[in-house]
Write a structure and sequence with these properties.
Layout: H1 2-5, E1 20-22, E2 35-37, H2 41-53, E3 59-62, H3 81-93, E4 98-102, H4 105-114, E5 118-121, H5 127-133, E6 140-143, H6 150-153, H7 160-166, H8 170-178, E7 186-189, H9 195-200, H10 204-211, H11 217-231, E8 249-251, E9 269-272, E10 275-277
Length: about 280
């Protein structure tokens, strides 16, 4: 991010959280370079402040157990309400937001009630929580469906133990997240699969939202643009084509609002700030 902003390398505009923040829990396999553990609410706040000092743009917490880590329970709540609210209070004070890794039903509702902005994954979110989110613009879910696809579960990166943990719950996850289509919930575009798989099939999230969840082409486009911009509190700068916003655009061959498969191909052009950036993938 810093190298891009200084013009040393070409790249997109990035928001970065720094290491995610979580309590000690033996069901998490992230490395020391990816996480900061805390001991109590005061220590959590100290870690949040430390990340900001080092350049973090927003706060990322780990709110439930992992889906794939051996010995981890995705339904387990890892954070207390006081801890979540302390992070939210700091983020609001700094005009930023809290994003939370969260799978379980109870944990998803806990995050909503405590004021987090984005619930990442939301694998087992309940219809009751979605009803509470209906019509809200200050909170949303960032779904990560590609992780559960046959195409990627058989690709490089997923070990046998991980696949065994994911397959039995896949239908339940689909059942839960499909209910989001019944409500006016701010849905963002995200992903959570291995880099090797992503390089092989970077459009899987787009495909599965239409194939498995039933979103329309326009809804998927909004999730990848204006919805994400709103969730990141960047909608005054990006997300739509409007005077005064950055001209960060791609051009494609066709109209993806009528045929989302137009986005499955490489862009004809990539523009950042109105300047044409060479498409290195072509």
């Amino acid at each position: 991010r810093d190298a891009i902003n200084k013009g040393k390398v070409k790249g997109p505009r990035l928001q970065c959280s720094g290491p995610l923040i979580l309590p000690p829990y033996n069901g998490i396999g992230t490395g020391d370079n990816m996480c900061l553990t805390y001991g109590n609410k005061e220590d959590l706040t100290a870690k949040v402040r430390y990340n900001e000092l080092k350049g973090a743009d927003f706060v990322k917490l780990y709110g439930s157990g992992s889906m794939i880590m051996p010995g981890s329970n995705p339904h387990l709540c890892l954070l207390t309400e006081d801890e979540i609210k302390a992070a939210v209070e700091f983020a609001n004070m700094r005009d930023t937001y809290v994003a939370v890794h969260c799978h379980g039903t109870k944990a998803c509702d806990q995050m909503f009630e405590c004021g987090v902005r984005t619930i990442e994954h939301a694998s087992f979110i309940s219809e009751e929580t979605l009803q509470k989110m209906d019509g809200r613009t200050d909170v949303g879910v960032v779904l990560t469906q590609a992780f559960f696809s046959d195409e990627l579960l058989t690709a490089d990166g997923y070990d046998e133990e991980s696949i065994k943990r994911v397959l039995p719950v896949r239908e339940k996850v689909h059942e839960c997240v499909k209910k989001v289509t019944k409500y006016d919930v701010l849905v963002g575009m995200g992903t959570d699969y291995y880099l090797t798989s992503y390089k092989a099939e970077p459009r899987m999230e787009l495909k599965l939202r239409k194939r498995d969840l039933g979103f329309s082409d326009v809804e998927i486009l909004k999730q990848a643009t204006i919805n994400n911009a709103k969730l990141m509190k960047w909608d005054d700068r990006v997300g739509t084509v409007k005077v005064g916003k950055y001209a960060d655009l791609i051009t494609v061959n066709g109209d993806p609002s009528e045929d989302i498969t137009r986005l499955y191909e490489l862009p004809e052009f990539i523009l950042k700030g109105g300047d044409i950036i060479k498409n290195e993938l072509k």
